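Summary for the lay section of the report: proteins are chains of building blocks that fold into shapes. Here we show the chain for Acyl-CoA dehydrogenase family protein and then a coded description of the shape we predicted for it.
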Amino acid sequence: MNEPIRFPGYPRTEREAQLCRLADGLAASFAQRAAEHDRNGTFPFDNYDELRSTGFVRLPLPREYGGEELTLYELLLVQERLARGDGSTALAIGWHMGLLLQLRTTRAWAPEQFDALCRAVQERGALLNSFATEPASGSPSRGGMPRTTAVRTEDGWVLTGRKTFSTLSPAADFFLVKASIQGTEQVGEFLIPKNAGIQIEETWDTIGMRATGSHDIVLDQVAVPENALIVSDPERKQLDAGGWLLHIPACYLGIAQAAAQFAVKFAKEYRPAALPGPIAELEHIRHKIGLMEAKLRTARTQLFAAAAAWDDAPEHRSGMQTELGLAKYVTTNSAIEVVDLAMRIVGGSALSRSLPLERYYRDVRAGLSNPPMDDAVLRSLALEALCEAPNK
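The coded shape description reads as follows.
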């Protein structure tokens, strides 16, 4: 008998189902610690020990390095499920996972540099993230030039500067840092190990995503060898159109899914004295549950259809930037609306810190600050519509 057709966003094969089971098990463990880390603003090192010990951090690697060559669709499946347990951990590890997927699919780095990174991830579960945002220059997605400088020396390079929003910094083993090369108009990327002298200033104190460890990192005359400068092909680097960044909306979809599941369970069990049955029997509650489900399914379809198209047509990836941006826009904004509806279903109790909804409510709004930004996506859509519109 043929397997039933599943809509986008669900496992389609046994391999995908196994990956989902792995992510579900990790999410259940993370959920036990999520509230405490959120309340205290602490970094969940235990979660990353589990991500390493289960081999999760190696999944995007090429098979010759012990990886599973995770597809983009598969990456979104596992990231969305991790976020149901702890959005902060899912978002932070998503940067590592997505970067490895990008590097594997584009092969933009010099082979020997990619090989060295893959071996570090394979052998000791090394974690990587890219750190580009700075206090003065703002988000790199807006075209800001880094104030961090790289000065050539006889032995290599010396880097000086500060990076903000440095997610995953407490657990990262490698810091991919953008810096302006002194005496030129060029910007270089440098792969710097943590033990090179990078300092972490614990500045991260926000209302949402409190356990991502997105502190400031400070480079004060950090000396690195010549080969720390990444040799990459900029054209190859652009081939994926940023498809790997879909790990971001997948995270917020997972938070919204967790909120919806909590609200539905609450509605089925909560029986006020004034009612003959649970509030799930009330029409206005069912209407809100229906709205949540409609928004979740629409977002899931948009997001995973984009990922499947990216996987299936590598030759067309470079032209998918607008579609990928639209997937992020629809998913993130739908996730915010779903969490709001969940709060309305639960009522005043949703504001209690003894329930997870108020954390979901704070965490999900962080998606508006992750790239690509809403205004940039809408501008791209408008420009495409104007170009396609027939002249009157």
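Put simply, here is one thing we learned. Residues 283-312 form the longest helix (30 residues).
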